[in-house]
Amino acid sequence: MNVRPKVPTGDVRALAVDLGTKRVGLAVSDSLGIAATPIDVLEGLTPEQVADRVAAIAKDRGVGVLVVGMPFNMDGSDHKTAPQIRQKAELCGKRSGLPIEYVDERLTTVEAARRLWESGLTNKNRKSRVDQVAAALILQSWLESRRAAKRRAEIAAMPPEPDTE
Description:
By secondary structure, the chain is an alpha/beta fold. It has one domain (about 15-155): YqgF/RNase H-like domain (Nucleotidyltransferase, domain 5, 2-Layer Sandwich). Helix content is about 45%, strand content about 20%. The chain has 4 helices and 5 strands. The radius of gyration is 18 Å and the shape is globular. Residues about 1-10 have low confidence and may be disordered.
C-alpha cells in the first residue's frame, strides 16, 4: 500500500528540490514560511545518494515537506523528463519520510540565470549557483501560493457583514 504523508497545513519549513539531469538545486524556507533561501547544489551523485542527502538536510533543518519542481512544456503537458523527475522525487520522499508537493518549474532556470547575470556574477559563478536559485524561485512560488490559499480560506470563513439598510 502506497500511502503518502499528509502535507502539514500550518506554518512549516520546506525544502525545495530542483532535480536536474546533472545537478540538483536546493533551497529552504524560513520557519514562518515567508522567504526561500538557496542553500546548495548537489552534483555528480546517483539518485540514491541525492535522496540520502536530501533526507539528511531535511532532518538537519527541521523540514516538514519537500517541494519539487516539475517540468512542463509551455502548453502545460508533461515534459519528457517528468517521469524521471517524479521517480527521483518519490525516492527523496521515501528516504526522508516527508510528503512531496510538486510545483510548475517552467522558466525558473531562465529566471534564475537572468537574476544571477544582473547581479554581476561571472559565467562560472552563475553556472554553479543557477540550480539553487531556481530551487529558491520554485519554493518562493509555493510559499506565495500557500499564503494566498490560506488568506482565501480566512476570508471565506469570515461571517457576513450585517445589512445596514
